[in-house]
Amino acid sequence: MERRSLIVLLGGIAALMVAMGIGRFAFTPILPMMMDHHLFSAAGAGYLASSNYSGYLIGAFVLTLVRVKSRSMLLFVGLIVCIATTWGMGVFHSLEAWVVLRFLSGLASAIVAYRHADVKLSS
Asked: Which residues of 82-100 are buried (b: 16+ CB within 10 A; e: fewer)?
C-alpha cells in the first residue's frame, strides 16, 4: 500500500473514532453513573440520546441534499464541533444545555461520516 494512502486511511480511522466514539457513543456507558448522581432522570437520559440521534439523522438528510465545495473543511469543522460539544458537557450543568450539545454532537458526527462516504452509484 502506498504511504500516502496509508496516511489517509489512518486519518480517516482516527476521524471516525473521534466522531463516532466520542461524538455519538461516549456518554452511553456513563449515563447510569450520571443518573446515580441525580444529574437527570431516566426521561432525561432518553432526551439526551434522542437529541444525539436526531442530530445525526438530520445531518445525514441535509448532507444528502446540499452540495459541499470543500469536504476537507467540512471534516475539520465536524471534528472541532465534536470536540467542543464533548468539552461543553463538562462545562455546562443543565439538562437543557446538554440536550443542545448532544444534538450538535450528533450533527457533527454525521458531517464527519459524510466526509468519508464516497459511495458512487453506477448508472
From this structure: bbebbebbeeeeebeebbb
User: Is the separation of the CB atoms in 9 and 109 below 8 Å?
Assistant: no
**Global confidence as pTM:** 0.81
Q: Is the Cα torsion angle 37, 98, 102, 84 positive or negative in sign? A: negative
CB count in 10 Å sphere of residue 19: 28
Element (H, E) at 95: helix 95-115
DSSP letter string, 21-66: IITTTTTTTTHHHHHHTTSS-HHHHHHHHHHHHHHHHHHHHHHHHS
The arithmetic mean of pLDDT across residues 57-85, rounded, is 88
Look-up: residue for cell 440521534? Answer: 53
Segment 45-74 mean pLDDT: 89
